[in-house]
Amino acid sequence: MSIPCENPSFRLLGDARGSLIAVEANKDIPFAIARVYYIFGTKEGVERGFHAHKELKQVAVAVRGSCIMKLDDGKEQLDILMNDPTKSVYIAPMVWHEMREFSEDCVLLVFADQAYDESDYIRNYATFLEAIERNGGNA
Ligand code: TYD
């Protein structure tokens, strides 16, 4: 079984002036958006993430530049090159994720279905694997 990370491409609205993408909740994103954050100015060699969420659902898109998003459901690992503002990745609950190889200009935009809650994080990989084993992925 593969990691559920697919999200439909965002529609590019372009004309002679340039490009525009509109993202609507429950349409382009499979949930109601409660929070948006973006990661930018990432220093060379920095790796981020290294956690899973118990319940949070997220969709990430590199609106500028590129990075690699690694997803891991405890059984399978997937490296996704994010370098296209029309292509997004769904990060399901209980999917361990790491981001690396950020280009200097990378802006990684993330939509989330809940407000920030540190208690929803699993930041220890061994704990993550234990939770997967215990609950079949349902923390
Ligand atoms: P962190 O989860 O370490 O980022 P990453 O997953 O990219 O490694 O978050 C960095 C800091 O920002 C940490 O102190 C928590 C805080 N933060 C918020 O306050 N709100 C948020 O929505 C996010 C994502 C992080």
Distinct small-molecule ligands in the complex: thymidine-5'-diphosphate
How would you state the average pLDDT, rounded?
A: 96
What share of residues is helical?
under 10%
SS element count, helices: 1
Cα gyration radius (Å)? 15 Å
Please identify the structural class as seen in this structure: mainly beta
Q: How would you characterize this protein structure?
A:
The radius of gyration is 15 Å and the shape is globular. By secondary structure, it is mainly beta. It has a five-stranded antiparallel sheet. The chain has a four-stranded antiparallel sheet with strand order 3-10-5-8, with no helix packed on it. The two termini are 19 Å apart. It is 8% helix and 40% strand. Thymidine-5'-diphosphate (TYD) binds next to strand 3 and strand 4.
Key attributes of the depicted protein:
four-stranded antiparallel β-sheet, globular, binds thymidine-5'-diphosphate
Topology:
Blueprint: E1 12-15, E2 18-21, E3 35-40, E4 48-53, E5 58-64, E6 67-72, E7 77-82, E8 88-91, E9 96-100, E10 107-112, E11 121-122, H1 125-135
The protein binds thymidine-5'-diphosphate.
The site of thymidine-5'-diphosphate has 6 residues, from β3 and β4.
Question: What does this entry show, briefly?
Answer:
The chain is mainly β and 139 residues long.
